[in-house]
Fold this sequence. Notes:
Layout: H1 2-10, E1 33-35, E2 41-44, E3 47-50, E4 61-67, E5 70-75, E6 88-96, E7 104-110, E8 117-126, E9 131-140, E10 148-155, E11 158-166, E12 171-177, E13 183-187, H2 188-197, E14 205-217, E15 222-232
Amino acid sequence: MRLLHFLTTGATALLLTVTATVLPGAPAQAAAWSSSDRWGTWRSGGYTVYNNVWGNGHGPQTITANSPSNWWVWANHPNTGGIKSYPNATRHIGRRVSQLGTVTSNFHVTVPTSGVAFTTAYDIWTTDHAHEIMLWMNKYGPVGPLGSYQTRATVGGHTWDIYRGSNGHNQVYSFIRTSNTNAGTVTVTAVAQWIRNRGWFGDVTIGDVQLGYEITSSAGGKTFTTNSFSVTG
């Protein structure tokens, strides 16, 4: 999944600007952009919003945005194993851990809680894509992190069960929040410094900070709404 995610992120994306059709369950407002293309991408205000339907056996998925901080996804993926998509919004940082300053992110989502398998997750990459930090803010259905359990720690404003492993292409550090939440603030700098202090990576350059939904199944069609999202610092 991690290699595919990297490849799709680096691929040349089709930029679409279309008139949105409001889907059942989606916010009833005029939208700035919508796409049902697997790789549909929209850039605005220093952010990128990306449909990113990358997994095998996927169903239809449509992403719609009022702004990079307010967007939603309607997805109808079958009840089978394997991640089908990671629709997300991205802000690029491009600074070494020692020079990050205080980077924080705020989020507020509305998500389905039954008949689904997914996580609401931050995906934070180093610029060389050798290291990936995942922050699972909530999870539903049969999903689990890659790697082996390391420890429980409170860092970046939340308490996590932390896993570490490799997918064969990059190192993955999965921070699984000990209880689900739909809103909050994460201090990205503190998480990156904690990993560096453990000796798991050096003074790497933090690249993309992404927030989205790793969707394994959403049979019948489910809506995942990002009410607000920002990265500052």
